[in-house]
Amino acid sequence: MLHTTTRRPIPAVEMVDKITDEWRSKENHLAEIDPWRPAWRVDLSDFPPVAGEGVVFSPTEDQLRRLQEVSTILEEAPAEVILRWAIDTFFPKLTMATAFGPEGCVILSILARLEPRVHVFNLDTGYQFKETLELRDRIAEKYGIEVEFARPELSVEEYERQNGGPVYKTNPDRCCYERKVLVLKRKVVGYRAWISGIRRDQSPHRANAPIVGWDKKFGLVKINPLARWTKNDVWKRILAEEIPYNPLHDQGYPSIGCWPCTRPVLFGEDERAGRWSGTGKTECGLHLADDQPPPPPPTTYGNL
Ligand code: SF4
Questions:
Q1: What is the mean pLDDT of residues 42-49?
Q2: Would the pLDDT of 162 be above 90?
Q3: Domains annotated on the chain, with CATH
Q4: Is residue 127 within 6 Å of ligand 1 at its C-beta?
Q5: What is the pLDDT of residue 210?
Q6: At what angle are helices 102-114 and 79-90 packed, to 10 degrees?
Q7: Please, where are the H alpha helices in the chain?
Q8: d(CA 226, CA 103)
Q9: Is 105 known to sit in a ligand binding site?
Q10: With b meaning 16 or more CB within 10 Å and e meaning fewer, what string describes 49-63?
Q11: Ligand 1 neighbourhood includes 123 CB (under 6 angstroms)
């Protein structure tokens, strides 16, 4: 059910159109965002926080319909409006996972203006590039946002010892599951919604990502404020606002994950071609719609 407040009685869709038009016409939009709180309200108060690790709530059809309603309204809205809505609706039970990709850095720059206390974490698998780890400090310095490192229980040394060597070489799906997906499941306990930096044009898996949707794998509302953005949009914003970014992007790495599973791309290759190159794997599993059982333990060693 869509409610219109007396504070700003503009029909929801018209309001978002108005914001978008005004937004697009501004040469310098930096200072103009906070007054633009949505005039509408879709009640999502019956979406509970994640009750425990792996305990997943199942929304009713009516709840899913309301999420879709919000997503439709916000489809054309600027990322700032989407995030303003997310904060007003879910904060402080709102979290964000970032790998410090360019999209994540853009979102952090917006959160810094809207609500820097939103909890943000990085899945630190133990295999990240040092440039990625250093970016955390540069973000903290510029925006005052201290991104928390969320780590698996086992260190890289313990994990490799227990498995007879690096699991990324033999079974990257299992490695991602154990060092990313399980860690995220643990980290989102107590939260109602999470923000992600995925874009629809990044891969076929992401092509239908809504602005706001239900993430049944993690039992959370998922907000994708940059879903409509292109790579160009992201980099225009980064350069215009001097947002810190990973220096590896200037060395041929358009998409950066763990160092063993990331290579620079060649001219003309897809921006994600350097991730798990040669394995057929394209996603770590965080953004796939359905949960998957943990892949079986490795039996033979192969090459990535
Ligand atoms: S990206 Fe590679 S190293 Fe990182 S968790 Fe996945 S398989 Fe393991």
A1: 94
A2: yes
A3: 64-290 (3.40.50.620)
A4: yes
A5: 96
A6: 60
A7: 12-25, 61-74, 79-90, 102-114, 130-143, 156-162, 167-170, 172-176, 182-187, 231-241
A8: 7
A9: no
A10: ebeeeeeeeebeeeb
A11: no
